[in-house]
Structures are given as C-alpha cells and as structure tokens.
Hints:
Layout: H1 2-13, H2 25-38, H3 43-50, H4 57-63, H5 73-80, H6 83-95, H7 97-106, H8 111-122, E1 131-132, H9 133-142, H10 147-162, E2 172-173, H11 186-192, H12 208-221, E3 231-235, E4 251-252, H13 253-258, E5 262-263, E6 273-277, E7 287-289, H14 296-299, H15 303-316, H16 333-345, H17 359-372, H18 382-387
Antiparallel strand pairs: 1-2, 3-5, 3-7, 4-6, 6-7
Helix pairs in contact: 1-2, 2-3, 5-15, 6-8, 7-12, 8-15, 9-10, 11-12
Amino acid sequence: MRFPSLLCLALMVAGSASAQCGGSFSEFVGGLKAEAVAKGHAPGKVDAFFRSAAQDPKVLKADRAQGVFQKPFTEFARRLISQSRLDRGKANAGKYDAVFDRIEAEYGVSRGVLLAFWAFETDYGAVQGDFNTLNALVTLAHDCRRPELFRPQIFAALTLYEHGDFDPATTTGAWAGEIGMVQMLPADILENGVDGDGDGHVRLKTSAPDALLSGGKMLAGLGWRKGEPWLQEVVLPAGFDWSLTGLQETRAVADWAALGVRARDGALAQGLTGSVIIPEGHKGPAFLAYPNFRVYFEWNQSFVYVLTAAYFATRLEGAPVFDARSPEAGLAGEQMKSLQQKLVARGHDVGAVDGILGQKTRDAVRVEQARLGLVVDGWPTPDLLARL
C-alpha cells in the first residue's frame, strides 16, 4: 500500500516541492520523499534513505557563526598558513607526485592549488567534519536562507546512496554538507567524481587520489584555464591611481606594466589579463589576480578565504612570504555591521548586513570614498565610518 500513496503524493507535489522550505520538519521530509519518487527513485530506496533523517540544530548554529571570515586578509592568512602546513604540503606533493602529474596533464590544474584546498578544507584529510551529511543537508534545505542550494544536494546524495557510495546513517562531513578530503557537495561528486585509485568507487573520505583528481576535474569544469597562473604579488608605483584596483577593473598585463606595476618576485605573466587587488587598502599588500583567480569563487564565496587559498597555493610552489606593509586599521565585526547599515541607508546594496567585507560592501565603500574625496581603495576604515 505504501507505493501507491507515495506515488500519488509525489505527483501532487512534484511541481512545487522545489520551492518548499520551513514549516513542519516531518512534513518537509515527507515532501522530499514524494519528490524523490516523482524523480524516478524507487519508493523502497527512498524510505530507507530518509529513515534516519533528523534536524540538526548544531548545523544552523554553525551556519550563523562564521566570524572567522570577518578577519582582515593578513590576520586570516597568518592564522591558516603555518610552517607545519607548508611542510606537510610539500611532503604530500612528493608522496602523490604521480597523481598530481596526472591532474596537471588531464585538467591543467597546478598541484599547489589542490594542495592548498586540501590543507584548508580538512588539514590534508585529518579533519573532515563529524556532522551527519544527510541531516546537515535536510536541515539547511528546510531552513529558508538558501534552500535552492541545498535541496538539490539531497537528491544527489540519494543517487550516491543508490550507487553504494553514501550511507545516510554514517556518512559525515562538514556542517554545510561537503564530503571528503577536499570537501565536495554530493552533486559535485556525482558530476566530477573520479576513481583515482581504480577500486571501482569514488571515495573522497578515504582515498587521496580519488579526492585530488575529483577536485581537479571540478576546477576544470568550473573554467580553470590549463597551465595558467592565478595570483602573483606585485609592487605598485608611487602615485598609482587606486581607483583602478579591484576585481571590477580588468586590463592586459602589458597595460598594467606600462602603469608601473611590477612583480615582487619573478616576472608578470605576459599575454594575459588581470586585476590589481589590495585586500587591506592602499597601504597594505598588493596582488595581480589572473583569470584563474575568479574560478576560486565558484568553490567559495568568501573573498578573504579565496585570496588566502590562492596565495597559499603560490607559497606551496615557491613564492615568498607576502609583504604585509602597514595597512590602516580596519573595522571590527560590529563596526563593519554599522558601516553596512549606513551604506544601506544611503541606498547601497551590500547583501547581508553580516560584518563581513564582501565585494558588494567594497563596491559601496568605493562610491562613498569618491564622494567624500578619500582614497578610493575599497578599504573601510574608522575614519570612513565616522564621516558617514
């Protein structure tokens, strides 16, 4: 009797289930089960998959407590990059040299890039998260902040379960549902999973070759340009026009060189385009971001995380420690929220008022700096806050 009732419910809700969130959690799970059957999954498998699904309040707490991303780049980078992580990165580069050779040949992604993700996401596989993945995904899909992101991941996890590569009761990972050594969501595993060790399965939690090759394939699919650089520290000349900095300004490398931009170590990559970024304003460090840098934002939306991961990748491949210089003091979390509130009151779209200096906030800061006759570098300071 269970199959007809589930199928009828599936047919009724299939058209609108994707928009559902909130309400009774048990009814929400019932809607997921109905949608799964409507998508063609066997009712028995669906029942077994969702049998242990439960709401996890710790997931919501973690989702709302990402204060680490409020830190400025230099502090964030110093916190994440240690000599131990550098040493272990270089050791893993040697240990999996053949795997990295294959990744570079097939996907064009340099080993430093994947080593940096591997380090930051799970400390080279040592800390992969202990949140039940199904519960995390269902909890976040039920929450109405970003259901459109997490609901499809539930059905991807169901497909992995049908393949024998996911256990709804025991598979664990990060609070946001990512699994394995380089933390990939179920849909990304389905699309980009690679059996790197030849055992017939894609096991990102226990197989470094599987995890690294899958990560390389995913980056290639996101638009990584084979064999090209992604980030380089630069030195800017006296009198530089700071309004030209930021990801919104892209120029040929030759044009940047003509303006006096030079590499701090080595030479600029000719024949490409790039953007000059100054994460802590005109008195702080400076980098040239090449086209591959933008692919990082498909992996993570945090500017400070992306820049730190990209920089660490260059360090793993021999770049020197960046020159932090002497940036002006920035804003602490509550100050940043106050700034964002003032910017919103002036008609700017800064996204969420969360105390995190994201791209929208930087863009609004630039507009206000220009209006007030300040240096237009996108770096909010206590002086700017006071003037607003």
